[in-house]
Amino acid sequence: MSTQALGFAIIGGGAVVKLPQIRTLLASQSAAGLAVSSFELENVGFTIHASYGYLLGLPINAYGEAVVMLLQNTLLLALIYRYAKTGWLRATAVLGLNAAMIFSVLSGEDSVSTTLVISARSSWSADV
User: What angle do CA 94, 98, 99 make, to 5 degrees?
Assistant: First the structure.
């Protein structure tokens, strides 16, 4: 019971972690000093984390913070693209690839994402 409560508390904490950045970005309407690539890599990390939990059938409190932070980071990334006047091709490619990864996982079809998670799990199980 206490681990479930802790999991949901972590999701709650994850829900507010990016809000100051979003607020500051909206107020200044400038992306000066922000590295676009770091936010793009964060999106990949959050997607992998959430996908891993989802594909293994873990309870939402085990990976839910990754989902919440992925949504917030995607909003931040869209705002950075807008304010930094990043080319539409890069923005479309990065966000499109991220959406394709998520769709691939949620579709339930055997995919590269599923294969990677299964192989990671089996290699981890072999090490333990």
Answer: 115
* Cα dihedral 53, 55, 58, 61 in deg (nearest 10): 40
| Rounded CA separation 14/41 (Å) | 18
User: Structural domain of residue 17, as residue ranges?
Assistant: 2-127
Looking at the 3D structure of the chain, how many domains does it have?
A: 1
Q: Report the C-alpha gap between 70 and 18 in whole angstroms.
A: 10
CATH of the domain at 114: 1.20.1280.290
Token pair of 68 as six digits: 């919440």
Mean pLDDT for each consecutive 10-residue tract of the chain (128 residues)? 79 85 94 92 90 88 92 94 90 88 78 57 50
